[in-house]
């Protein structure tokens, strides 16, 4: 293994950045500048190439601190740097585009109706929000008939934790067109509200999309 200091100056990421500009660095070179140091077996560029080739940048951006530390060559410090990198990128992207404010079940219906109205199967989706009710992301949790006994709270809240969401709204569609909740729907809602309280992630509502109409847990339970 050749150490970075032993490489020709034109091959070192920092020197290349200064000489050729940041836009001319490869993904691996940019990533190497973030994680800074290699290991006894691999220099930092080799680690970066291996991680990007194996996991992709998208895959690495979805990894939690714990998951990153399970990757060979990534310790606590490097994992923190990687998480910080992707969080900054996410915030930068959000700052550039108009944010969607979700203020009511009607707003949820307007956001999701076009996407779900022609679906032949039930889609169970978590709408991830920040602490001011601005949309972060929509995440498909399951597709098919909902069953309270097999809904895994961890799978519902994992995207919220990964995306630093403090609130979520549950959404699913009824292909029949009738948005009235089943006993299963109410059981799922209660189960996930309780789980959210334990995790510190508030479940604001559960909205069921029917044919040009909707049902809202929050509005019904007022």
Could you explain how this protein is built, in words?
The chain has 222 residues and is of the alpha+beta class. The chain is built from 9 helices and 5 strands, in the order ααααααββαβαββα. It is elongated, with a radius of gyration of 22 Å. The longest helix has 21 residues, at 76-96. The chain has helices at residues 13-20, 27-35, 44-61, 65-69, 76-96, 105-116, 153-162, 183-199, 217-221; strands at residues 123-129, 135-143, 167-173, 202-209, 214-216. The protein has 2 domains: 4-96; 105-221, 3-Layer(aba) Sandwich (Cytidine Deaminase, domain 2), CATH 3.40.140.10. Strands 2-1-3-4-5 form a 5-stranded mixed beta sheet, with helices on both faces.
Layout of secondary structure:
Blueprint: H1 13-20, H2 27-35, H3 44-61, H4 65-69, H5 76-96, H6 105-116, E1 123-129, E2 135-143, H7 153-162, E3 167-173, H8 183-199, E4 202-209, E5 214-216, H9 217-221
Parallel strand pairs: 3-4
Antiparallel strand pairs: 1-2, 1-3, 4-5
Helix pairs in contact: 2-3
By DSSP (H or I, 4+ residues per run), the number of helices equals 9
The helicity comes to 40-55%
What CATH calls the topology of the largest domain is: Cytidine Deaminase, domain 2
> Radius of gyration in whole Å, from Cα?
22 Å
Q: Please state the second-level CATH architecture of the largest domain.
A: 3-Layer(aba) Sandwich
